[in-house]
Amino acid sequence: MSPDASSKKGLKFGKRKSQGPLPPGVERRRRLRQERRQERLIQLWRLVFFLLTATGLSWLLLTLGWSLRSSSQIQISGSQRMDETVVVKAAGLTFPQSLLSLEPGEIETKLTQELPVQEVSVQRRLLPPGLDIQLVERRPVAAATRMGPKGIEQGMVDRKAQWMPMDMAKQGEKPASGVKVEGWISNRRAVIARILQQRDQLGRPLKTIVVEPAGDVSLRIETLGLVHLGANDTLLDQQFKTIAQLNQSLPPKLRGASSEGLDLSDPSQPELKLRPKSNSATPEKASEG
User: Fold this and answer.
1) In which element (H, E) is residue 244 found?
2) What value does the CA radius of gyration of the chain take, rounded to a whole number of Å?
3) How far is it, in rounded angstroms, from Cα 233 to Cα 100?
4) CA nearest 144: which of 127, 164, 159?
5) Which of 12, 107, 171, 287 has a 20 to 30 A CA-CA distance from 58?
């Protein structure tokens, strides 16, 4: 028999031998591996099912449970004048709305722009679902006018002399004083605020704060008439003291309607301009007593 024939016979014999039953130990290990694969597959499907179920339940909870359905779920604190209806309108909220989709920062910005408030804090409440909104009101101190793109605008100012549009101011309190600011401009806000803070010490009463476009400031005081302060902010304290002194010492015949005004741009040398009896005015030095 040739070597090739012998090798072919050996191959056939080996093939028949490989198709026979496996030894018991090998067969048992093979079954164990199959069982472990099946168990891992079952566990994987269980995990997938659990994740899908949890995701669906979470979505239902977020959309149906944690949502705003009416303004009654909004709690307002810090203001007795602005209720849930006013806040909802100013914030542009609609119902129903997912609670977690709301951005507290955006609501705070809108409320600050639309309502007479200086501070706003908005927090989401998950149990029970709702919004907690805390307001710190801006209280108007004086009525005011300013020049706008379409002409003279009516408004109010708060204690910091910040402008409050009339539609905003009407939602809050009435002005705390009878003072009126004419010609409000933003770069004179600090001066206006200081005058408003000192209004009770400037005469009986301070009626008007007049701001010129160039920045000069004048006061209309019932006891002294028109008082020109100028534009030098560093002189304000001295000017306040001079006004208080003149309120005590200036003769009645030189007050109010009998004069054209009091110039305190240099408070160390106050100048009173009397109404002319002829064509020319007669400046006089006002006594500080």
Assistant:
1) helix 236-249
2) 42
3) 50
4) 164
5) 107
User: How far is residue 228 from each of residues 209, 212, 213, 224, measured CA to CA in Å?
Assistant: 10, 11, 14, 11
- The DSSP letter of residue 136 is E
The SS3 call for residue 220 is: strand
Q: Per-residue DSSP letters for 194-262?
A: HHHHTGGGSSS-EEEEEE-TTS-EEEEETTTEEEEEES-GGGHHHHHHHHHHHHHHS-GGGSGGGEEEE
For 270-280, the pLDDT digits (tens) are: 888 766 665 54
DSSP H or E segment with residue 112: helix 104-114
Contact 122, 132 (CB under 8 A): yes
Alpha-carbon gap, residue 221 to 188, rounded angstroms: 19
Residue 16 has what pLDDT?
46
Q: Which residue, 122, 135, 118, 126, is CA-closest to 82?
A: 135
Q: Cα(181)–Cα(158) distance, rounded to whole angstroms?
A: 11
Q: Could you tell me which residue, 192 or 34, shows the higher pLDDT?
A: 192
Name which of 151, 184, 150 is nearest 169 in CA terms.
184
User: Among residues 132, 142, 5, which one has the least CA distance to residue 74?
Assistant: 132
Residue type, 213: P
Specify the 3-state DSSP secondary structure of 283.
Answer: strand
Indicate whether 2 pLDDT > 60: no
pLDDT by residue (tens digit) across 30-52?
A: 788 888 888 888 888 888 888 88
**Which helix or strand (DSSP H or E) is residue 190 part of?**
helix 189-197
Question: Which residue segments constitute the domains of the chain, with CATH numbers given?
Answer: 68-137 (3.10.20.310), 140-285 (3.40.50)
User: CA-to-CA distance for 41 and 49, rounded, in angstroms?
Assistant: 12
Which are the contacts of 120, defined by CB distance < 8 A and separation ≥ 6? 107, 108, 111, 112, 133, 134, 135, 136
Measured CA to CA, the distance from residue 7 to residue 64 in angstroms comes to 78
Residue 270 identity (one-letter amino acid): P
